[in-house]
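Hey, weird one. I pasted the Flavin-containing monooxygenase sequence into the form twice and got a warning about non-standard characters only the second time. First submission, copied straight from the form history:
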Amino acid sequence: MEKKIAIIGAGISGLLACKHILEKGFSPIVFEARSGIGGVWSQTIESTKLQIPKKMYQFSDFAWPPSVTETFPDDEQVMEYIKAYAVHFNILPRIRFNCKVTCIDYVVPGNEDFPSWDLWGGIGWPFSPTGRWNVTVQDARDPAAPVEVYQLDFVILCIGKYSDLPNIPDFPLNSGPEVFNGKVLHSMDYAAMANDCAAELVTNKRVTIIGFQKSAVDIAAEVAERNGVDHPCTLIFRTVHWIVPDYFIALTFKSLNRFTEFMVHKPDQGFFIWLLVILLSPLLWIFSKLVEAYLKRKQPLKKYNMVPEHGFLKQISSCMFTVLPANFYDKVEEGSLVLKKSESFKFCKNGLVIDSEETPIATDIVIFATGYKSDEKLKNIFQTSYFQKCITESLAPFYRECIHPHIPQLAILGYADSPAFLYTTEMRSKWLAHFLAGKFKLPTIGEMEADVKKWEKCMKYYANESYKRSCISVLLQIYCNDQICKDMGFNPRRKKWLLAELFAPYCPDDYKYLCWQT
């Protein structure tokens, strides 16, 4: 009997999952709440472009078209590339648009106690002989329409981390947006606007941005460019982060090779590897300090009190990687962009009051670029509290960054943070498709739990209090890919000669033929 597989979401991770599963002979259903594909790339601000070189952000078996000559393509070019991929591999007919999955629930016969299973799904293989997922789907265009319930053998969650559930701070009574006469929105809402509507909203307005990650600095630079010194944009933040120019990103990716990973501790490393890391790790510390010195020299960080308190290596280990918008500090110098560091702030009638100043910041529009509640979003899709607790009560990462040891017949793609998101997600899509095809069996639940605990301990060594379970492969991309290749029974060494294996960067092209191997 044909196995029924559902993929929830048609962003990049959903498209990758669908493509690779189709190649294994399955016929998945893709539920997408919106009317089109692309996920976060379908709703971006006007100035958005790739933060990494396109060579590291491409499908391994579908190259960028020759017409895209830029190293960092813009959002429209990225969307065209994604659409071309979906058309080329005939993915679109598998997608049911405007179908919002409201909840999923795992169903087993009443005499089975699945939380006590020693093996994932009871047998360690992808499809249980008894368990099924009930997926409830609603018409996104008509909430009053009757819901449909699908019973499926396997579910792949590709719902993304950076959409739908914005993280907006709580405020004491009479200190929040309710007392403010202006407009308050989240960067998600701003990005969802058409470019002309977004421009009309902020033009000749006093705009304040809250945050200092990618969305915050990009929107601040865009608004400052549009309004100039007559209506300066204010950027309020609690913590300063290192932000690097795009050419530096290109240089950094060229150094991501096996030799640099010899400087990083790994789970289950033997004495020889441990000793090698001890001997080479000072080079990693030196690299971090050189980067910090370079950025302080090239950017007026001291002048504007913008020197971060943490090191560059710690920030990278926490997956906080932001590219400096063009002419960012030129806008600060000319006065079209005002930087304000503050531990806290509150709303007043005409603007915002920060803790270091008595005079309110006069503001017409406040945009929160404060991230998303990704774990809560993931938790909310499960109907039962057992699975919700699986998501919220542990900080351990997922096995191979896509399998929760206690959630059977389900994978989570697109959750792993990485500067090279497409590259990371495609590798796990290939691994998952191979698993679904019955090519290998998962370890016991206890062994998977022990594995992810080792990863948690290892990554906390570098990230400390900034550790996130979604960010464990950023320093060990090749090592993680090696594990995936070994699981699938393939040679993890993808280069043709020793020096290249050690010192050449690894990129998606190196794994181009992996999915074609049997």
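That's the output from the first submission. The warning seems to come from a hidden character in my clipboard, not from the data itself. The mean pLDDT is 93.
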